[in-house]
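Exercise 7. Predict the joint structure of the components listed below.
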Amino acid sequence: MPLMTLQEAIAAHVKDGQTLALEGFTHLIPFAAGHEIIRQGRADLHLVRMTPDIIYDQMIGAGCARALTFSWGGNPGVGSLHRLRDAVEHEWPRPLRIVEHSHAGMAAAYTAGASNLPFGILRGYLGTDLPLVNPQVKSVTCPYTGEALATVPAIRPDVTIIHAQRADRSSNVLLRGILGVQKEAAMAAKHLIVTVEEVVESLDAPMNAVVLPGWTVHAVVCVPGGAYPSYAQGYYARDNAFYLAWDEVSRDRDRFRQWIDAHVLGVTDHAAFLRSVGVPSTRDAAGPGEVSA
Amino acid sequence: MTVQWTPDEMMTVAAARLLWNGCVCFVGIGLPSAAANLARLTRAPDIVLIYESGTLATRPDVLPLSIGDGELADTAVAVIPLPEVFAYWLQGGRVDVGFLGAAQIDRYGNLNSTVIGDYAHPTTRLPGSGGAPEIAVHARQIFIVLKQNARAFVPGLGFRSTAGFLEGHGARARSGISGAGPQAVITDLGVLRPAPDTDELQLVARFDGVSVDDIVKATGWPLRLADRVDVVAAPTEEEVHILRDLHARTRAAHGCRVAVPY
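Solution:
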């Protein structure tokens, strides 16, 4: 039942003004879903992600976001996310409220959300100025030892979107490789959308593998290459050349707009995006319209 | 006859030499990652490298561009979820050395990687602190790699992203933070270490061809000198060749187009 097209899944579950988490720690970043959100013109979103990465740089630059909760906002190994910087430094294309954490704080906040607890606890933020600029970071006294521990409010996204390697016909989802906080973000969400590389008859998951059972998933969408230019372990590698090239594309507002117009707004689906940026296909027979399942 | 080397190479080699065989090292991306892998490929073959993406005891053949490249997962002993990295491994006390970079540092080894200027209206919005605030308090000690100039080595930080010795003079120890904090700062000019009584970073070694005066001028506060300022031994031929091979493999790998099954 929940197997649908990406257009249908975003239209059905993602609404203006929601709190939205697209997770994936450098691996399995749901780029296709982010692009579809831009195409459908969603606005006023509170975006949550440990590492905003290029996908949130694009969504912020396209005007989708009013707020961002994050813990590290750079282009990994390259430098700045220029659209994020432009939004924070110059309010372009609109002001962006930021809620800033450390990685450990974000991990604790997602874990609390998945656990239906009001807040997460950690020995964290010690000696830093982060609590001065993020009043959500507070502390609690341990009832056993008297130690002061940092607290962060649980993250409960309206919608979490993740990308995974595969799902079966019953919407059971298998993830492998670098997992980030995908499982926690998935379990913390009110609605969960998963894009996958392929839908198979049987997951054949090893015992103790990371499987999100079908009844936790509100929509499964088959989007081959859906994590590009990040990667899907066992399917394709991270396109580090794209990440390096994004630095130039994103520096300039006009060049960025042209890029979004040509490669996101100007295409109908992710396969067309991949073709438009010249990604070689390993499948000669790949044709158009592959995004729908 | 010694081999020719650049200041960047000297910095990476000097940082790599601080790591020992068997040490459990939590590695930041960029210069720390290059140094940690050079150590693994030279004098510390059994060093345990942990990247915050959850790759434990990884042995990458090429340097990762991001903290979570597939190369790190492919060559790891185990790949674990991110909350476990911070809760079980770092907070759990299983890390000997945290290896960090930053945009700015002060005389007590506190780091800024968040903003230049006012937080709400920054002149420059930097990426932020990521894993560093907790790495810096839970690892048994911290090494910092940072190019030295007066814009980076500042008398006061506008924003403290990551704790070094706080206000110095024992402030860190009194605050209850467990780890020993920054025990070495490796720059492209030399090496700084904290003075035992004040916690203030002082110059303990300079690179060959760099004068103490050059280093003082590249520091935004009146830099104190240790009783003896050593000269760091030049990189060996082996160190330079292995490092250059590593960078060459990395450049070739990062320039490859990726094909996708779509």
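Discussion. Chain B has one domain: 7-249.
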